[in-house]
């Protein structure tokens, strides 16, 4: 497949905007940084409340979903199953979501809070507690709530109702078919540019840390641009190779390897560091976080003017950074989360990565603070503003520092590759509107663009300007995310009403006319051939008679026949709304040992029994129809058709019954 799958309405405006901002940052880095930094500062100082309220609403809404009835809704058809095992799922979302950041800030952030002049008036113990509390706050539930909102919105509208896996789909309840026009393109262009800038700046800083680590180990002779070129070329090449192999292979395998390596490094520091102190401080720190959760959430530091600059440079910057990254991380999380329930998705995404982040930040950050006070005599505090080298200097105070530094570099490299390859995948996904297959040259194109821009910015010193641009984009996107919540609420309410709609009163109950036959059917366990024959005769006879009656009323119905397994459908086609479909399929189930051994039942020859089960065109859960007579089966089809006509007649259900689903099914 050599032809491009790129959508011109998304790709061309994105490339033009990316090129303009990048060229300005490369050729006029100082001017660009001054202008963009001034805009960023204005937003952080005057509009910081937007970030505070937005993130607060994200957290409250997600917690509500966990405990609400909506939590039972599955991200996909009602009978869908997760595509990835739990460990692989967590490893991939963790690698994409935090990755390099944990390695970069694991020691640096707690140490910077601990040594900050803003908290200099506090005692040493209180400064240590403070450092842990704010680190937990910045890397905890609030950060993952931002990612979860985007990931959940994308998963819900893409998998539940077959819309493209694209940010524009999250606006369907609000914009309806207009998402396929200029509004939809504008949303995707914004997401693509934000993703590109965020990945570029993060990878640029990651290259600097890898270079610093290699210099520490004596593998390279310095931290000059020549070494950075070599590092970028090697790592981006690996990222492209991984992206080409796909999520199921490259990204999944690397993520699994890296999470194991990360746990090994974590245990190494925990065992050889101040173990008892770390376990105690984690326990107390977790309690401190829980006790201060809501105070931290709503705190704007308006009554403490001396801490406002710190608040802007840390909390608000973090909220803006996570929001700017959320299109990329959210889309990737959505890609790997098909088949999970909303409750499972939200609880896992909020709690498990947060808990791991807390353990990581405690083990590395509190170890560094303890060593700085008791062993290093302030040396690590002095390096707090140099995070590139701080992690490796910290490891020097532990045994086997050469080995642990090498493992750290290896982890950073794999995080680099998993972030880049998942980023390449996401950008291509946005630019192609979730095309099933894209030519390999497109994957290489995105990787090459990342490599070239990262190197140009590293050489010109323009990374800070691009980072400021990324943070500025977070303000409008925070508003977009709030609209995602409005769309989700609207969609979920209709979803619940749609799937809970009762059958009409025309449903015919069993009568007592053939009770002897019914009793015999109830205690008889059928083989596959018997059920297949039931479908081929009884069900077909009912469908043929019904088809003729539909025709006499001016309605064209067709009968679809399939085999292996035996399946029969009656379908009424529509031009505007979804087709009406009622099908019967052979299903099987394994009988329990209690039934097999029960002497009060007829002899059962096989542990597996078969039965005919109805299914419908809108993924509602079907049921066993083996006891239905021909007339009862006809009646059952009619009651579903009556329900279908009632549903499609209501305007509010239009998002579930548009003809787009027919077109997708027929492709």
TrEMBL record:
Alphabetical list of InterPro entries matching this protein: BCCT_CS, BCCT_transptr
UniProt xrefs under PROSITE patterns: BCCT
GO molecular function, a single term: transmembrane transporter activity
Alphabetized UniProt keyword annotations: Cell membrane, Membrane, Transmembrane, Transmembrane helix, Transport
Topology of this chain in the membrane: Multi-pass membrane protein
GO annotation, cellular component aspect: plasma membrane
Family to which this protein belongs: Belongs to the BCCT transporter (TC 2.A.15) family.
UniProt cross-references to Pfam families, sorted A to Z: BCCT
Segments crossing the lipid bilayer: 9-28, 48-67, 87-107, 136-159, 186-205, 225-247, 259-279, 316-334, 346-371, 403-431, 443-463, 469-492
Compartments reported by the entry: Cell membrane
Protein name: Choline/glycine/proline betaine transport protein
């Amino acid at each position: 497949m050599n032809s491009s799958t790129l959508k011109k309405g998304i790709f061309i405006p994105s490339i033009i905007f990316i090129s303009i901002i990048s060229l300005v940052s490369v050729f006029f880095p100082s001017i660009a940084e001054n202008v963009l930094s001034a805009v960023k500062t204005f937003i952080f100082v005057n509009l910081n409340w937007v970030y505070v309220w937005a993130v607060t609403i994200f957290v409250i809404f997600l917690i509500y979903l966990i405990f609400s009835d909506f939590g039972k809704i599955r991200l996909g058809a009602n009978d869908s199953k997760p595509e990835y095992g739990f460990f692989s799922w967590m490893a991939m979302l963790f690698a994409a979501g935090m990755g390099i950041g944990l390695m970069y800030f694991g020691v640096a952030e707690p140490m910077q809070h601990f040594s900050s002049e803003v908290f200099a008036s506090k005692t040493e113990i209180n400064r240590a507690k403070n450092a842990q509390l704010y680190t937990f706050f910045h890397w905890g539930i609030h950060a993952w709530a931002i990612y979860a909102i985007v990931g959940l919105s994308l998963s819900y509208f893409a998998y539940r109702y077959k819309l493209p896996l694209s940010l524009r789909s999250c606006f369907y309840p609000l914009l309806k078919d207009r998402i396929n026009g200029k509004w939809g393109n504008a949303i995707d262009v914004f997401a693509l540019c934000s993703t590109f800038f965020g990945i570029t700046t993060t990878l640029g800083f990651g290259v600097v840390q890898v270079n610093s680590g290699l210099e520490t180990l004596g593998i390279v002779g310095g931290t000059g641009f020549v070494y950075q070129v070599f590092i970028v070329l090697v790592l981006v090449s690996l990222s492209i190779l991984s992206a080409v192999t796909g999520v199921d292979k490259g990204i999944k395998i690397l993520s699994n390897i890296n999470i194991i390596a990360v746990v090994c490094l974590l245990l190494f520091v925990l065992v050889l560091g101040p173990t008892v102190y770390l376990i105690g401080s984690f326990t107390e720190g977790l309690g401190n976080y829980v006790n201060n959760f809501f105070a931290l959430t709503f705190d704007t530091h308006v009554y403490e003017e001396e801490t406002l600059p710190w608040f802007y440079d840390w909390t608000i910057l973090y909220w803006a950074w996570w929001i700017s990254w959320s299109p990329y991380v959210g889309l990737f999380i959505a890609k790997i989360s098909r088949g999970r329930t909303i409750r499972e998705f939200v609880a896992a995404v909020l709690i498990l990565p947060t808990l791991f982040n807390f353990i990581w930040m405690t083990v590395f950050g509190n170890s560094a603070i303890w060593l700085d006070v008791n062993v290093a005599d302030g040396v690590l505090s002095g390096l707090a503003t140099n995070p590139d080298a701080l992690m490796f200097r910290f490891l020097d105070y532990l045994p086997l520092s050469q080995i642990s530094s090498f493992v750290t570099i290896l982890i950073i490299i794999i995080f680099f590759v998993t972030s880049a390859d998942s980023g390449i995948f996401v950008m291509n996904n946005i630019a192609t509107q979730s095309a099933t297959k894209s030519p390999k040259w497109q994957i290489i194109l995105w990787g090459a663009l990342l490599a070239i821009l990262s190197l140009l910015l590293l050489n010109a010193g323009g990374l800070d300007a691009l980072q400021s641009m990324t943070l500025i984009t977070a303000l409008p996107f925070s508003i977009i995310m709030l609209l995602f919540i409005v769309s989700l609420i609207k969609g979920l309410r209709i979803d619940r009403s749609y799937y809970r709609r009762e059958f009409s009163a025309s449903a015919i109950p069993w009568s007592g006319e053939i009770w002897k036959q019914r009793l015999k059917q109830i205690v008889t366990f059928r083989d596959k051939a018997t059920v297949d024959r039931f479908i081929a005769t009884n069900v077909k006879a009912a469908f043929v008679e019904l088809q003729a009656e539909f025709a006499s009323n001016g309605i064209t119905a067709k009968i679809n026949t399939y085999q292996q397994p035996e399946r029969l459908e009656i379908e009424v086609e529509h031009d505007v709304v979804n087709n009406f479909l009622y099908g019967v399929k052979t299903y099987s189930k394994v009988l329990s040992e209690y039934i097999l051994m029960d002497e009060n039942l007829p002899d059962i020859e096989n542990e597996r029994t078969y039965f005919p089960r109805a299914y419908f065109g809108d993924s509602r859960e079907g049921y066993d129809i083996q006891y239905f007579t021909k007339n009862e089966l006809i009646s059952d089809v009619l009651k579903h058709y009556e329900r279908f006509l009632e549903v499609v007649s209501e305007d509010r259900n239009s998002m579930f019954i548009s003809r787009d689903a027919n077109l997708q099914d027929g492709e």
